[in-house]
Structure formats: structure tokens, C-alpha cells
Design goal:
single chain; mainly alpha; elongated
């Protein structure tokens, strides 16, 4: 009887062990397919070696804000203009060759990935950043058409008002010897300008509000959270609290809804002619959710790149006093009226040296977004490098320069 009991117990254990082994065998199939085999298959493609089969190179991009550009510059110097990296299970090819970027952005065979649309769509909704290619061009033409002389004149005029506040802040700091964060001041300056001239929003002066105004902080939190979610998609959204992003998004949505409601109460609050808000609201079938997505997109894109490029330009001028002196001479030559805050609109076309300094700053410090994730719906080749873009893998077109980008 005892032997029979032991035999039965061993039989049960054997069945359980067999079932466990069978489960592990089947569980290992997707792990092998998604994590191991792709890395073995593409091991000879130029790019950094992954740190682990699970995380890939994701650990390189999960540090402090701005680290992405430093790492990618290092990668490019070592592996070339087209290289691969692994973000957990995703093979991502980074393209920095201008011809390759142009092809990727224009071909219909490389649409935005579901991961990009899902993560970025938290802020952009169904706006210009995430809409399908077939709708993107028509919508983009409608928006770009607003950037005419009337819009640029209004932009220039309000920039003059905002610059008075900016100059006063810098003048006070110079008198007291206070150290200021130029990037932060310029962020508030450009937000003031874009809110007033693009959306007619009179929300008080963001510059003078300083840290008390929640808008700049909400944008910063949202961008940082979305960046981390893109790198670690989809695991970060599952295992890491999304409360900071939800809180920032809720504030931005409420802020933009107030702008929309104010325009409905006062249709002429945008000034003479239609501004960007009018264009968004008058698109056939446009819902408030869609308009909010577009307003958030332009708030971020309209100020972020400009403010950071200005900060880099001031930094470069401080490091090159000879160039700074030439810029000051050109400004003085255009300041016919000593009471002017900025040169007249018509004289902007004549400041060729300042324009050259601006373009050189853009070359040395490209501050556009980290790229747009595209996926191949069919096998295709980049025309310049002849790199094969295989079905169902992601690529990031991104412009980098050969200059070292400061952390």
C-alpha cells in the first residue's frame, strides 16, 4: 500500500513536471521569437551592442532630459549615419542621412508606428502630429497658409511687447548680479508670444508670473513622460505610474478648453483676421478634443524649439565675443529710432549676419524633436545608402550634426 502511494505521488509529480516543462517550452517561443532571434539575425548591422536581450539599449536613453541627443551623437560618430539599436524587443534604425530622412518622411510605405501614435496621441489627440499621411498634407497646407505677412506682422508686433518685459528682467539681473536661467526665461518669452499671436490668449504675462504660472512646468512634465514612454513602450505605461502625465495633460486640456471657450464668447478676440485657433475651429467636423490637440501641439512645437535655439545662440555668442560684437553692430545699424525695442519688421530681411548666426546655431545645436517613429509596411530601400527597410520594423529619421552637443 505504501509503495502504491509513493508510485501515485511520483506519477503526479511527473505529470506536473512535464506540464511545467511544456509550459516553459511554449512560453520560451515568443521570447525566442521577439527577443533573441531578431538580435541574432541582425547582429551584423552597424550599431551599438545591446546590454541585455531584454532591455536592449533602452538603458542608454532613460537618464536625465537631453541625454538622448548626446548618446545619439556618440553612436553616429562611431557607427555612421544609419545604425540600429534595440529598445526592449523593438529593432529601431536611426537615420541621420538627409536624403534618407527626406525619403522616409515622404514615402507612403513608411507610416508612423502605432506605438508613436498611441504614446504621443495622449497630448496630440487626432492632431497634425499623429493623423494619417493621407490627411496630413491637406491639413498641413491649411495651417501653413496662415503663416502669411499679416500673421508675421502680428508676431513681430507682440514680440516687441514681450521683449520689453524680457529686457527689463535681464536689466534688473545685470544690476544686482543675479544669475538667471536663460533657457527658462526664453521659454516663458516664446510662450507669451505664441499664445497671444496664434491663439489670441490673454492669460496674463507668463514671464512676470515666473514659477507661479503652471503652464511651462506642465509642458515640461508632459514631454519628459512621453519621451520615457516612447523609449520603454509598452512596459513603462503598464508598470510605471502615469499620474504625472495624466495630471499635466488634464491641466493642458483645461487650459486649452478655456482658450476655445473664450473665442466662442468673443469671436474677435484674435484680432484682425483669422489666427491659428480660428483655422482649427473652422475645419469641417472639428471637435473640441481635436482643437485641444492642435493647440497643445503648437504650444509645444511653437515655443520649445525656438526658446532652446535662442538659449544656445546666447551661449555661443557669450563664448565668441568677436561674433557678438558684429551682431550688436548690425542691430545698432537697424535701430533708427533709439526708443525701439526691436528693429522694424521691414528691416528683418536685411539682418544677414544675424540670420547667419541663427542658422549656424541650428546647425551646431539641432533642437527639433527626437524624431518620428516610422514602420515599414513593405520592404524598401533608402535611395542614398541602399539600406533595406524590412517589413514591420521601426525607424527614426533624425537630423544630427558632426558637432559635439553639450549635455
Amino acid at each position: 500500500l505504501a509503495n502504491s502511494s509513493l508510485l501515485g505521488m511520483f506519477s503526479i509529480l511527473a505529470v506536473l513536471a512535464g506540464a511545467l516543462l511544456l509550459f516553459l517550452l511554449f512560453a520560451s517561443i515568443p521570447i525566442l521569437y521577439f527577443l533573441v532571434l531578431p538580435k541574432l539575425r541582425d547582429r551584423n548591422f552597424p550599431g551599438p551592442h545591446y546590454h541585455s536581450f531584454f532591455w536592449g539599449n533602452a538603458g542608454d536613453f532613460s537618464g536625465r532630459p537631453g541625454e538622448y541627443m548626446v548618446v545619439m551623437e556618440r553612436y553616429r560618430e562611431r557607427y555612421g549615419k544609419t545604425l540600429q539599436m534595440w529598445l526592449i524587443h523593438r529593432r529601431v534604425v536611426q537615420v541621420t542621412d538627409p536624403e534618407g530622412i527626406k525619403y522616409i518622411l515622404h514615402t507612403k510605405a513608411l507610416p508612423k508606428t502605432d506605438a508613436f501614435n498611441k504614446v504621443v496621441g495622449v497630448l496630440g489627440r487626432d492632431g497634425l502630429v499623429t493623423i494619417p499621411n493621407e490627411r496630413h498634407q491637406a491639413q498641413r497646407r491649411a495651417i501653413v497658409g496662415r503663416f502669411n505677412d499679416d500673421f508675421l506682422h502680428s508676431l513681430h508686433g507682440f514680440a516687441g511687447q514681450a521683449l520689453k518685459e524680457f529686457s527689463a528682467t535681464l536689466g534688473k539681473a545685470a544690476e544686482t548680479g543675479e544669475i538667471v536661467d536663460m533657457d527658462d526665461l526664453l521659454t516663458r518669452l516664446t510662450l507669451d508670444v505664441i499664445l497671444r499671436c496664434a491663439f489670441g490668449a490673454k492669460v496674463g504675462n507668463i514671464q512676470s508670473a515666473g514659477d507661479k504660472h503652471p503652464l511651462p512646468a506642465a509642458i515640461t512634465v508632459a514631454l519628459e513622460e512621453i519621451y520615457q514612454n516612447v523609449v520603454l513602450h509598452p512596459l513603462r505605461e503598464i508598470f510605471v505610474s502615469q499620474k504625472p502625465l495624466r495630471t499635466a495633460n488634464a491641466y493642458l486640456s483645461e487650459f486649452c478648453q478655456e482658450i476655445i471657450d473664450e473665442r466662442r464668447r468673443n469671436p474677435n478676440s484674435g484680432g484682425n483676421g483669422d489666427d491659428l485657433l480660428d483655422i482649427f475651429m473652422n475645419i469641417p467636423g472639428a471637435t473640441d478634443e481635436y482643437v485641444i490637440g492642435e493647440v497643445i501641439t503648437f504650444l509645444v512645437a511653437g515655443h520649445d524649439t525656438t526658446s532652446h535655439t535662442l538659449a544656445f545662440m546666447f551661449y555661443q555668442l557669450s563664448m565668441h565675443p568677436g561674433i557678438k560684437q558684429k551682431v550688436l553692430v548690425e542691430i545698432d545699424n537697424e535701430m533708427v529710432d533709439p526708443n525701439q525695442t526691436i528693429p522694424a519688421f521691414e528691416s528683418i530681411a536685411r539682418v544677414s549676419y544675424i540670420r547667419a548666426v541663427w542658422k549656424e546655431t541650428l546647425r551646431l545645436h539641432p533642437v527639433t524633436a527626437t524624431g518620428t517613429l516610422r514602420t515599414a509596411t513593405e520592404d524598401t530601400y533608402l535611395p542614398a545608402s541602399k539600406v533595406r527597410m524590412q517589413l514591420n520594423f521601426s525607424c527614426i529619421p533624425r537630423t544630427l550634426t558632426s558637432a559635439t552637443i553639450s549635455p
